[in-house]
Design a protein that fits this description.
The protein has one domain (about 45-295). About 65% of the residues lie in helices and about 5% in strands. It has helices at about 20-35, 45-75, 95-115, 120-150, 155, 165-190, 200-220, 230-240, 245-255, 260-270, 280-295; strands at about 80, 85-90, 300-305. The protein has a three-stranded antiparallel beta sheet with strand order 2-1-3, covered by helices on one side. Strand 1 and strand 2 form a beta hairpin. The radius of gyration is 27 Å and the shape is globular.
Length: about 300
């Protein structure tokens, strides 16, 4: 057996170091990411339908179960409920207060339900998050709105209290603190929906779609209400566009807070929510409910005894 001989091999290539290896690895990863297919988008029509259903649920809880049922149990003989307000032949502070209180109670029920989100499909989970957001934002936003504008449910609740200015300031402070806390709660539920990019386009879509859907639905249904255009301008639009303003701010809020390394590490351990696919069942249900909301409840329903 002949032992191999070794000779010096000359080459023009630079020596491979750890630095050049890391650089090549980064280029390979970058090329692979750029050639990867884009992430599937959520179905916009299904998002709109889910948003409409969450908006309708929040409104019925507020006007129907909150104001309407309380007025009936309080002895009212005639009640008219529309998408913008409830009218009855009696008026008490409990009737005024219970609209927002029912919203907050329902949000308190939804919060633990969302503690085990793996039970739900992406679409149902999105609906539950929007229902939580709508009830929280309406419930806490009414404190702030009534304190600033001196109009609405909680302006009626504190009517006659002295000193009145102090009660208005208390409502503003309570509203601001509780609304911000609500945004943090909703933000935590939306984290798994966030895309990998710093400014998640998916989060913008999931937050802005319900905001504009709710605004259109409230405005169109409000035009038919029996109380006139005033309540569309003074109640329906402010309580919808104003109360849900947190949905516009959440994408930016999530992008800013994502700079925290500690939070980024925790978020990495959260299983991402899959895309929301087109669902004929959700679309048909949303369309049907929207038509009933606009043309039936929008015109007002009256009960007498």
């Amino acid at each position: 057996m002949v032992a191999p001989t070794f000779s010096t091999i000359k080459t023009d290539k630079p020596p491979v170091t750890a630095t050049t290896s890391a650089s090549r690895l980064r280029h390979v990863i970058s090329d692979a990411m750029s050639s990867a297919p884009p992430a599937a988008k959520d179905d916009r029509l299904t998002l709109i339908s889910v948003s409409a259903l969450a908006c309708i649920l929040q409104d019925i809880l507020h006007e129907g179960l909150g104001h309407g049922v309380t007025a009936w149990l309080s002895g009212a003989h005639k009640i008219t409920i529309s998408t913008v307000a409830m009218q009855s032949d009696i008026d008490t502070k409990w009737i005024s207060a219970n609209g927002t209180l029912v919203n907050l109670i329902f949000a308190a029920i939804l919060w633990p339900i969302l503690r085990k989100p793996q039970r739900y499909s992406p679409t149902l989970r999105y609906f539950l998050v929007l229902a939580l957001a709508g009830n929280l934002f309406t419930g806490t936003g009414y404190f702030f709105f009534s304190g600033v504008a001196n109009f609405g449910d909680w302006a009626a609740v504190i009517s006659g209290f002295r000193p009145y200015w102090m009660w208005r300031v208390a409502l503003v402070v309570l509203g601001a603190i509780s609304y911000y806390a609500s945004m943090l709660i909703v933000r935590a539920q939306l984290l798994p929906f966030r895309g990998p990019e710093p400014a998640s386009r998916r989060i913008r879509t999931l937050c802005w779609t319900p905001y504009f859907t709710d605004g259109v639905l409230a405005g169109v249904s409000g035009l038919l209400n029996p109380m006139g255009l005033f309540y569309v301008i003074a109640s329906a639009l402010p309580s919808t566009l104003g109360a849900n303003a947190g949905l516009l701010s959440l994408p930016s809020m999530m992008r800013i807070r994502r700079r925290s390394a500690q939070e980024s590490g925790a978020a990495a351990n959260v299983a991402p929510v899959a895309q929301i696919r087109r669902s004929i069942a959700w679309i048909v249900t949303g369309a049907t409910a929207s038509l009933l909301f606009i043309f039936v409840l929008g015109r007002g329903l009256t009960w007498s005894r």
